[in-house]
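Renewal narrative, Specific Aim 1. Our central claim is that a sequence can be written position by position from structural information alone. The example that follows is taken directly from our test logs and has not been curated for this report. It begins with the structure tokens describing the chain, in the order in which they were read.
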């Protein structure tokens, strides 16, 4: 027996059909969901979900990442400070590291060092999930909830260039997206950031760190 959870909640407070993922109540995935230390979050147009877990040292960000079939990953990027470690628990997500692709199976660990270009995807038809550790996260701790929150928030536009400028500005010194070319994006960000700031844009919003926001937008597990 399986149950559906993680569905997107519409403006009327109802789960959107076709969203969410299946989980068996007595499974490893259910156990990890039960250990979460905060609400389940998601992206409304991508089959990806996340939930915070206890940090092993008080500084590292540890989370559960659930990836559905067809997930094509975050934009390629690299970290100037953070090291990421992915412990695959189920499925076979594909990691794209410095232009090379590698499919990892259950029990395998993938470590992404600083300066290493990376993203990941799910190319098969099986749900994947993994434990993700971000060491020395810096401002990522504040920005990651904003990236998903903006996508869910009808009052905001994650694609607004000035919004993107402020996110890039907040991540400066740690995370760099490879598109557009950083040699162009960095000076453009410096020029546009004062304009974006004057118009009220921020690189991270506190409301997206609040459990109430996610509980209103994503169906929470009851296992």
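The sequence written for that structure reads:
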């Amino acid at each position: 027996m399986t149950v559906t959870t993680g569905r997107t909640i519409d403006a009327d407070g109802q789960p959107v059909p076709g969203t969410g993922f299946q989980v068996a109540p007595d499974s490893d995935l259910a156990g990890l969901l039960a250990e979460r230390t905060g609400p389940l979050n998601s992206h409304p147009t991508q089959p990806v979900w996340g939930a915070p877990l206890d940090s092993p040292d008080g500084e590292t960000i540890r989370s559960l990442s659930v990836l559905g079939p067809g997930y094509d990953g975050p934009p390629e990027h690299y970290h100037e400070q953070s090291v990421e470690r992915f412990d695959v628990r189920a499925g076979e997500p594909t990691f794209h590291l410095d232009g090379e692709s590698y499919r990892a199976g259950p029990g395998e660990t993938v470590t992404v060092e600083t300066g290493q270009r990376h993203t990941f995807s799910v190319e098969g038809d099986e749900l994947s999930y993994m434990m993700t550790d971000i060491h020395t996260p810096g401002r990522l701790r504040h920005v990651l909830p904003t990236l998903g929150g903006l996508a869910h928030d009808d009052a905001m536009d994650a694609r607004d260039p000035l919004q993107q400028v402020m996110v890039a500005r907040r991540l400066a010194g740690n995370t760099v997206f490879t598109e557009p070319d950083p040699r162009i994006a960095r000076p453009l960000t410096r020029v546009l950031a004062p304009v974006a700031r004057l118009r009220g844009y921020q690189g991270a919003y506190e409301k997206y760190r609040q459990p109430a926001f996610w509980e209103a937008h994503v169906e929470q597990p009851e296992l």
